[in-house]
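Here is an idea for our session: we take a single protein and study its fold together. Which protein we use is up to you, so please pick one and set it down. Once you have written the record down, we can walk along the chain together:
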Amino acid sequence: MSLSFEGRVVLVTGAGGGLGREYALAFAERGASVIVNDLGADTKGGGKSSAAADKVVEEIRAKGGKAVANYDSVEDGEKLIQTALDAFGRIDVYCYALMFTCVFYLLLCITDLIQRVHLRGSFLVTRAAWNHMKNQKFGRIIMTASAAGIYGNFGQANYSAAKLGLLGLANTLAIEGRKYNIHCNTIAPVAGSRLTETVMPPDLVASLKPEYVAPLVLWLCHEQCQENGGLFEVLKLSLYLRWERTQGYIVRQKNQSMKPESIRDHWEKICDFTDATKPSMVSVCEAKPLWCDFCDATCFLSLNYTFFCFNPLSVFSSFFSQTKAVGQKLPPTTFSFNHTQCILYALGVGMSTKDPDHLRFLYEGHPDFSCLPTFGVIPSQAAMMDGGLSSVPGLNIDFTQVLHGEQYLELYKPLPTSGIFPLIILQKELVFFKLLEKFWEMKQLVYMNTYSGNELVCYNQFSVFVVGAGGFGGKRSSEKAKPPVPPPKRSPDAVVIDSTTRDQAALYRLSGDWNPLHIDPSFAAMGGFKAPILHGLCSFGFAARHVLKQFADNDPSRFKAIKVRFVKPVMPGQSLQTEMWKEGNRVHIQCKVKETDAVVLAGAYVDLHGASGASPENLSQGGGLQSELVFAEIGRRIKDVGSELVKKVNAVFGWEITKDGKKAAQWTIDLKSGSGSLHKGPYGGKADVTMTVSDEDFMEVVQGKLNPQKAFFSGKLKVRGNIMLSQKLEVILKDYAKL
C-alpha cells in the first residue's frame, strides 16, 4: 500500500528550494498540509524575500494540495509553529532542511550566525512544536546534519560544530520523545542545489538530485515507521550509520596507581576493533558489565578513534547495578523518640509561642500536649537517612541530585508524644520498593509502615527523583502510588500566609533530614541552586498545620491523611501562602511562595475525620449499638474502594439510628466528594437521602431477616429525600448484606 499523509500537518524549513522544496512537494502530493518556510535569503545569507516560499505554495496548490507560506527565521520558532496552528490546527511533522552554505560565505561569516541558524534555530522550532506533539501523542522530526559534522572538513569548523550539535540534539529528542510517540531521526544528505553548485562540478550537481533524498525523509516521517534515533547518509543510496566501540582494556588493577605508560603499553588493545560492540545509548562498558561491582578498575574504551576514561564512581557506574535494587527487602528497624523530638519538629515547621494555639504542641506540660500529625514522616525518613536506602544492593545515590517528588502520609490513630516505633521497610506486601524510569531520572518509591507495639500507627509513601539515574528499562508507573488531585476551579475557602525564617532549614534538619543540600552553600551549588533550599517536608508541615488549625481546631485526632506533590523549592526566609478548598472531609490545598507567586506544593489535599466521630478503625469501641459494627465495615470498604464508589453512587447518605425510641447515633456516608468518607455525626450540608431506623431493625435488615421494602411500608424504616438513591447502597454492602 502507498504511504499516505492525509490529515497530517508538515512544517518544512528552508523549503523555498533544493531539498526543502522537494520535501514539501512530496508531502503535499501524498495528502499532507504543508507549511512552506523560507526566509528568502541569497546564497550568502543576506537579504529577505517571500518569492521562494510563495512559488512552492503555488506549485502545491496548482496540483490540488494544501499549503501556506511562512517567511520567518527559524530563530522565531514560535511564529513558525503558530502558522501551522492558525492554518491547520495542529503540527505533526517538522523537517529541518537547511543544509549547506557556500564555502565563501562560511569563511567570511561569524561563527555565531552559523550556530544560530543551524543549531539554535532548529532547537527553537522543535521546542515550539514539542508540547503540541506530546499532547497529541504523535510527532516526527527530521534533523539535517552534514558529512562535515560527522567526519569534519577542512575550513568548516563552525559549520561542522553546528551540524554535529544537531545530531546530539536529535539523539536526545529521540530518547525523550519515545514515550509520547515522537520520533526524531537525522539525515546527512548530499544533493545538488543552488548552495552546492558553487563547490561541485556541474555533472555531479546534476547527478545528485534532491528527489533521491525525499523518499527516505517521507518514510521516516510516516506513522508506520518506528525508526527512532537513527543517523542516515543519503546520496544516491540511503546509508545507515552507527557507532562502534572496542572491547577496551582494563588498565588499572585494584589498589594500584594509574600511569600514562600503562596506556601507551596497551594502546593497540585499547584501539582493537575486533569483536567491537555497537552502543546505542549512554552506558558504561557494555562488554564488561561486571567490573562496576567486582574489580574496581577503570576501563578505557576506544569510541571511533577517541578514547574515553570512565570513572567507576561516576553517575554512570550505577546503570548496571540499579536493576539489582528493584524489589529489594530490608529488615525492620526501630525509631525511639520522646517529647523533645515532637517539640523540635513543631518548631521546625514554623510553630511559635506567639500563637497561644501552638502551645499544646510546644509545651510538654500542657494538659492537651500532642504531637503534630505530620511528625509521622520523621520515623520513616530517619530509617532511610540512617542507612535504610544506602544498604540496598546496587543503589548508589548522589545526594546533590536527589529531589523529593511526592509524599503521602496516612494516620490510623493519633501519634503518641514518646515511644519506640518499629518500622517495616520494603517488607512483604505492606511496603514496597520499586524503581520507575523517567527518561534519565530514577524515581524511587518507598512504602513504609510504622507501628506502636503491634498496632499500625501510620503509613508513608515517599517518591524521590534522582536526576541523572535511570535508563535501565524499569516500570514507568505504580498502581499503588497515591495520585495527586487538582483543586476545585473556584476561589479558595481560606488562605493562610506564614513566614519562614532565614534559619528554617537549619532548624528543620535537626529532626533528621541531614541532606547538606539544605545547609551547605557549596553543596547546594553542586545541585544547581544559588543557595541552600528549604526541605520539601518542611513546607509540607507548614501546609498541614494550616489546614489543622483552619478546619480541625488544631485537633490532631481529626487528621487522617495528606498527599502533596513538590513542584518548586522554597528559599528560607520566604513566605508560604496556603490556599484551601473544603469539600466534605477533604481539604484541597495549594501552597505558593508569596513573594514570587510560584506554586511549590500542588495536587495536594488533607483528609480529615468528622468533627464528632473517630476513624473507622475505632468505631466499634463504644456506643453500645450493634449498628456500629456495620458502619465500621462500611468505613473499611470506603477506604479500600472509595474512589470507585464515588463514581458509581455520587450521593451523600445520612443515617439516624434510634434506641428505645430516641435518637442514639447519626452517621454520614459521603460518596460524592474526594475518594469517599464515613464519619459519625450529621452531614455539614444537605444529605441527598436520610434514613431513620432503630438499631434492632437496622441489624434485622442487614442480616436479611427483614425485607427493606416491608420495613419501609410498615414505618420501621423512614426515608427523606431522593428515595431512589437508597437502592445504590447495595454497592457498599453487596456480598455481605441485603440492604
